[in-house]
Amino acid sequence: MPIATVNPATGETVRTFDALGRDGIEQRIAAAHAAFRQWRLTGFDERARLLRAAADLLDKEQDDIARTMTLEMGKTLTAARAEAAKCAKAMRWYAGHAEALLADEHPAPADVEDSGAVRAYVRYRPLGVVLAVMPWNFPLWQVVRFAAPALMAGNVGLLKHASNVPQTALYLGELFHRAGFPEGCFQTLLIGSGAIEDVLRDPRVAAATLTGSEGAGRAVASVAGDEVKKTVLELGGSDPFIVMPSADLDRAAEVAVTARVQNNGQSCIAAKRFIVHTDVHDAFAERFTRAMSALRVGDPTSLSTDVGPVSSEQGRADLEELVQDALAKGAEALCGARRPEALPDGWYYEPTVLAGITKDMRIHHEEAFGPVATLYRAADLDAAVGIANDTPFGLSSNVWTADEDERRRFVRDLEAGGVYFDGMTASHPALPFGGVKRSGYGRELSGHGIREFCNATTVWYGG
Length: 463
Description:
Elements: E1 4-7, E2 12-16, H1 22-39, H2 44-60, H3 62-73, H4 77-101, H5 109-114, E3 117-126, E4 129-133, H6 141-153, E5 156-160, H7 166-178, E6 186-188, H8 196-201, E7 205-211, H9 214-227, E8 230-234, E9 239-243, H10 249-261, E10 271-277, H11 281-293, H12 313-328, E11 332-335, E12 352-355, H13 362-365, E13 372-378, H14 381-389, E14 393-394, E15 398-400, H15 404-413, E16 420-421, E17 436-437, E18 440-441, H16 446-451, E19 454-462
Parallel strand pairs: 4-5, 4-7, 5-6, 7-8, 9-10, 9-15, 10-13, 12-13, 15-16
Antiparallel strand pairs: 1-2, 3-19, 8-18, 11-12, 14-17
Domain Aldehyde dehydrogenase: 3-459
Organism: Actinacidiphila epipremni
InterPro entries: Ald_DH/histidinol_DH, Ald_DH_C, Ald_DH_CS_CYS, Ald_DH_N, Aldehyde_DH_dom, ALDH_GabD1-like, GABD/Sad-like
């Protein structure tokens, strides 16, 4: 795949970039390795000062970077601005909380004595150079939610971003440098996927984090496993959105639309499978389909647009294959399931609701990365849980119910990294984020995320 900015609203190639050669990659790894030896010695106050400076720059440049993101991957300008603001917020959160999150941990005095020590504690120390392999769908946020905690912990980063968002990738590398971070602390590598293995096998690279497809995760995890290096993987998702009889149907349907089409439907944590109790199924389906049909599809730079294009021609083709497979096997399109006739240029697809999904349809098992929702009817709570868990993924889940007994059951039984009641899944710096099953392993954000790339060191003093 060429490293290029291709406008998904028009299909126009705006700018292309040459990939780094071996010498360029070597220079950046060497710079990162050298930077880590000094950066790890800095105090939390200095790290926080620089991270806040980066947040200030991001706030000032919000409109410019938002337009770059919209140009490169098609998210609406409104969503792009919100993403930039969220990144600045996360930077400030980690600047203010990292020291406490990584404070020494002291066992109970009785346990220290029982270990034969006069004093013992756990100290969190950084691992070193971390390779971040990041996707295009949230081109700023996915990177910052790794970079902010990693830098505050004393690590340094090498970013291999998706090849279709090179300008956003270069902006990120320059952002931290302009904020005052020492040379080599955070660098962008403009390289193709074929170069990742050599970087990860370099002994100066300590660990890797990847957000992306299951295939990409398998490839990186395989190399890292062979090298015995730590990884964190956040992969695909096919999150359930469960609606029970006690739910506020008007509110549930309203949120369901946002949960499905956020980021033009291209989000791992977007709700994709809508599982509705039979007692309220028809009422919910009518509300949901009506609202999905009313969404305005068009130019992502227009503030009146609800849904822009998907990010690539191949991405739309993949989405169409899933929909056509379902329709050929008996599914019913309640709305959409086609390209909008008024938008012949660009990679647009109408918001779609499919009903009558069966297990032999690919869309039942595969992730639909675009504005396509699947609708299921569940006879009772057990059936809803069964449908929800009948997927290889387990990233997050959404449940609408006012019944406390039902809530306890869903928390106990749903196979997911998160259970969100009466709302939609969203990431926040204070809450851990990640999944189970083929959605990956490890956690980002919160104290769990900042400690993923730390050495939990036992310090023990004898008498």
